[in-house]
What we know:
By secondary structure, the protein is an all-alpha fold. Helix content is 81%, strand content 0%.
Amino acid sequence: xxxxxxxxxxxxxxxxxxxxxxxxxxxxxxxxxxxxxxxxxxxxxxxxxxxxxxxxxxxxxxxxxxxxxxxxxxxxxxxxxxxxxxxxxxxxxxxxxxxxxxxxxxxxxxxxxxxxxxxxxxxxxxxxxxxxxxxxxxxxxxxxxxxxxxxxxxxxxxxx
Length: 160
């Protein structure tokens, strides 16, 4: 349910709020620690670590926001590292499809591809520059990624 709410908020505001992502992360760690004791806590912490490794780099270079990273870490806390890797692969695929659809819908596919190329080739934060390139305040400037995280997580359960 948290991923559905996060997706709705992200679609409307282009943000994943801390009041949603952080309790989700903490609850995952607490529940896994209580139900699985020390091994459960380790499993949850390993999932958080995997999320930070896989989503940290895109966050650092400006390809996604910290809210997406915190939401992904929350997913990792609940499902652990092995399933998180599967969820991440599905999330990346869903994110690619959603990003292309989003850019086409807003008539900004060319500008989005240019910004993506800049991110990949320069390896430095470009979020503000990308917003300026697309025009401040346009709906296409920031593509919501929480829906992709939700879809990727759901698909990881369907393939178990």
